[in-house]
Amino acid sequence: MVAAEGVEDVVADVLQGAVEVGEGADERLQALAVAVGVPLGVLLAPAWAACALLPVAAAVWGWVLLGRNWRSWRYAERADDLLISRGVLWREETVVPYGRMQLVEVTSGPVERRFGLATVQLHTAAAATDATIPGLDPAEAERLRDRLTRLGQARSAGL
């Protein structure tokens, strides 16, 4: 029994030492976490902030491109035809003779109505030459529709 009591004392001493080592280890782990975490937080925080700003920068860039695209639309009423030009990087010009116009529509969807805009759409016999002029003031769109309809009727009567 003496040997058993001696083993219990040794086990108790070992367990007590483990608890003491564990308490010291816990404090050392906390100190290590602070020593590693603070520099990493200081060094990596700007990178995370930059990642958070990427969507904001993309939205601003998209707004700038949208404005450039919107300002690129032009139209000119010439003597015999309507010239429509658009595009920032790739310029595209469409010429629609007045005599070829079959239908001139003014449309305004919910978003266009919200911003006080309208679209004039020109239909011809050939589907490839249909043309659109978006972003007009509704009064200007109606004026243009009436003028193009009159010119189209006058030119088609002369054919």
Automatic annotation (TrEMBL):
Keyword hit for Nucleotidyltransferase: no
Transmembrane segments: 47-66
UniProt keywords, alphabetically: Membrane, Transmembrane, Transmembrane helix
Tagged with keyword Transmembrane: yes
Chain ranges of the YdbS-like PH domain: 70-148
Listed name of the protein: PH domain-containing protein
